[in-house]
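Let us work through a complete example step by step.
Step 1: write down the sequence.
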Amino acid sequence: MPSRKITMQDIADACGLSRNTVSKVYNGRGSVPQSTRNLVLQKAKELGYGFPAENVSVPHQPIGNIALLTRYLPSQFHFGTLFLSSFTDMISRAGYTLRIYEVSQEELDKKQLPPHFAPAQIAGIVGIELFDQDYVGMLCQLGIPLVLSDSSADTITSLIECDYVTMENIAGVMAVIRRLAEAGARQIGFVGDYNHCGSFRERWYGYQQGLMVNGLQYDKRFCICEPDSPSYADSAWLLSRLDRMSSLPDAFVCANDFLAISLMQALKKKALSIPEDIMVTGFDGTTQSAFTDPPLTTVRIQGTEIGRLAAELLLNRIRIPSFPYSWTHVKSTPIWRESIRKT
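Step 2: predict the structure and record it as tokens.
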């Protein structure tokens, strides 16, 4: 039993709400979102407020819907597979149901929601693989709590009106550049379209900064940074880009593991040995990266933790709409493997 009488103010403080909101729940006066009502009743039950706990009704049925908006559902090469699992678990425990909406290219171009998306039925939105800044801006204007995980390259330098949680990119790539330099690399190229998305842009920043702090020069002749397209998955296309170079760098830093694996195939077609002739690194920490020949040095993304944090941010935003927006980066971890030489 509590050592003193619990008041509505105690419940309000525990929930991060106003006393007036708690009063509305108990007096039945005024409109209170169902999620807020459930939070107040649950906290009252925990604190032993007012009346017997068995009279405090906390529904076990879903209390609302959270919408996942995405251009493409995460694949096995994407950190989003782990993200989605932990995110779904967190919101389900809070009483929400996840609804998944794939945004078509036409909807993206016209800045339209999917036709079966009903805003009045959605308590919050999570965005993955939405790399269009104007579309993100449209979502921010809906008045529905929104959290993004990665976004367009321009979004990361804009004052967007939503929460944002993603992997740390810059320091991870800088650590890779430092290790390559210690292994003897003096010319290092970059592979990937740095305008493709926010994470690629930050990895490009890390590449540029890493070169500078290690006393190395940037040379665009060693970079393959053409606009993103299916061609990057084609080792023959990458081979044609390598053949255009008058000489090859000592190492390539790739924007993700998918690109690194394709590049390794292209380099082998040139009869080059990895890492003896040239070193290669990726980013993401996919399962596939451990089984390449040789195993790929990469930077592992904590997809599970990013998913949990995104859920916490969104649930908090639903409860407290006026809370300051948060931009969160979760530390990524370099994984040193045989695709780079030992120092």
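Step 3: interpret the result. Residues 51-61 have pLDDT under 50 and may be disordered.
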